[in-house]
Amino acid sequence: MNLSEVGEIFTPLTESIKIELSINKEQRDEWNNRVRKHLDKRNDVNIQVKELISEVQKQKLLRDIANVKVKELKDVRFVKSEYLKSVRIELRDRVEVEGDKPEKKAGPDPRKIKSEMSKLEQSYERGAYSGKKEREFYSKMKELSKILKDAKVQDAEDGIGTLKRNQRDAKFAQAKAHDDVVIAVRDAQEAHDLMMELSEEVDRLRDIANKSQMEVTISKREADIMHNRYVVSLRCIHSMQDIINQMKSGEDGDDRVGISDLMTRLMSGDTLSTDELMSLQRN
Q: In 3D, which of 175, 179, 178, 198 has the Cα closest to residue 62?
């Protein structure tokens, strides 16, 4: 078979392979672009995951602190509740013991008397009892002092009034302790709910990141397949050109040595630069 006959066979075949070469190159580049796109998406999602995990840990710490506070406040509430219970029992027993005695008229509350005396002193300091009214001020203060003294004596003789006040104060303290527990429980629950919500979002984003990584793997595999086909097409073109050139005598001997060297490297699995690959394609 002479050079002309070989040329007639190789020329259309070379053109066909060049078309395949171009298609493989375009598809390879497209798959490489997909690799980059999915890598960027995966990396962006992983950054969000990292930030959310940090927030989850923060909410967990807040929840744990709130739970400790709940426990402490429950202990306080228990103490208040036990004290209220003891006051109620003491008051009940006292009422039962003194049940047959004639009922005494309840005296004035010493605290109210003190409050009234304090208001009177404030009015005096503002000048409300200046001049002739000053005697009225001292008269009222003297009267309230006597009433307060008598009320204290009556309290000492009649412990039921004191127990009732103690019971009222204990009920108020116990109710406040209970409210504090309710608020602390609510804070702990809110922190827990937010932590769980963020954890679910972390799981959702991780699923997206995993899918993106899968797409990276698939796209890279397809890009490698297209690249390998591109290299094979390039090798076929070069091999046909090499056969034709070998059938020519004395033409571009030095250039063919360089091209043959590049082809040898390519066939052995070495990675060639873009310029070297283009040199093979041109020749």
A: 198
